[in-house]
Structures are given as structure tokens and as C-alpha cells.
Give the backbone structure.
Amino acid sequence: MSIAIVADSNSGVTQNEARELGIHVLPMPFMINGEVYYEGIDLTHQEFYKRMEEGADITTSQPSPKDVLELWDNLLKEYDEIVYIPMSSGLSGSCQTAMMLADEYDGRVQVVNNQRISVTQRQSALDARDLAAKGYRAGEIKNILEETKFNSIIYITVDTLKYLRKGGRITPAAAALGTLLKIKPVLTIEGEKLDAFSKARTMKQARTTMLTALAHDLEERLGDKNAFHTYLQIAHTCNEEAAEELKETVRELYPSAPVFVAPLSLSIGCHIGPGALAVACTGMLKELD
């Protein structure tokens, strides 16, 4: 039984990385000043943030049903089943659309709604690949990933309130006051949505807040205080130097845990802008021990 593992580019996995990792990635479309671009195909992260800082009109979009079906049909010529892991259903309608499309495939396509995005979605794709290698069927992989969907969380701090205001996530008055007071909000992605978590006055304080929250989640949520059985992840938007510094701090705190660093997906970057920094954790699957 051969199983193809597919994620969308919200996972942060590039086309080249996908080939190396043995998975497949559907590129997400973006509208920039009325033109369609595809993440990782004709739109790099550097180009995206350059256009954003220039004031371009940028909106996210779902993959077209045609693109999704074309990818699935091509893969099913080679594979028996597909596990498709789109971004969180709470952040986009693409998951529900994929579920409707999958109804026509008689169970050969299993759409996973485990409410992940970015580095945690990436880990889901890798877990699915490893489960398939151990002989699990597509439906079994879907069930395992959905049963463990709350075993991960992301904390993000932003460098500017400009893009949260532009996207309507905070009011212009709140953005103006926050900018005046130099507030650095800490946001969280847990399950279905991006929410406010805390506030800090400096990026240093925001980092401390995120690391404190991470420590709490490791002990209380995952029961893994020392991260012996947890993946730790650092993500950023055009903030690689700070991300590497945070990685070293996390490694000192949790020397036994693997720590991965990657850019945040553009679907998140669209709402928070450049300069953001995130820390995340994802519990390891007992089936892969």
C-alpha cells in the first residue's frame, strides 16, 4: 500500500524541501495588486515582504478546486491513497473545501483537519510520512493526527501593529495607542484561531513571555517538562537572526529536544508583517516511538 502525503505551502515546506522529505506541497495563491502569485513558485518570502512594505494590496486565497483535484489525480496514478493536510480549518475555508472534494474519491483521499499551520503543520506532514512508512493506512493516519490535534501550540510576537490594524484584527485607535506605548503583543495559535495572549513593552519581554508560556504548556498540557518527547520549533517573518538567537536559548533550556527553525507561512505573515518571532511545541506521537 503506497500513500502520498500532501500539505499546502502554509506548512512552510518549500517545493525543494518537499522532494527531499518525501512529501508533496500544494502552493497557496495570493492576490497582490490584483495579480495571482503562488507561494514558492513565483513568489518568494523576500518578494512578498518587499511588496508588503511598499504598501501593495495583498490578500490570501484558497487553492482552486481545479488545482487540488489535478494534484490528487496525478498522485493517484502512482499511489494507492493520499493523506492531505491543509492549514487549520479555523484560519481558512480550504480545509472544508478539500473535504467536500474528497467525497468523490471513495476513501482514497483522507483530508486531515488537525488545525495546524506553519511549523506545527510541517511536523504533521512528517508524522504522516513516518506513519505511512510503518504501514498505517490513510484513514488510520487521519484519525491519529486528528486525535492529537491539541498537542501543539504556537506563540507569536509582532514587531509592528500596522498589519494587525490593516487586517482588522485590532482597531486603528488600539494600534495607535499600542504604537505610542511601544507595546509588543503576544499572540497564540491554538486549534482554530489566532488570538491575543499577552502584552509586553519590549521584544525581550515578549520573548520571556513566550518561553514562560512554553514551559507551562510542556508541563501542564503535554506532561513533558523537559521536552524529552516534544518537538520545539522557532519561526519568524524576515527575522532570521533573532530566530537563531531564540533557538540557542531554547536549546539551553531543553538540551534533549530537537529544535527546528523556519519562516512563518505567508498566510500568517500577511496579517502580522515582517519582524515577527514565534516559538511552538508539538508532542511526539506514541505510535512513532
Remarks:
- DSSP finds eleven helices and 13 strands in the chain.
- The longest strand covers residues 193-200.
- The chain has two domains: 1-27+62-146, 150-286.
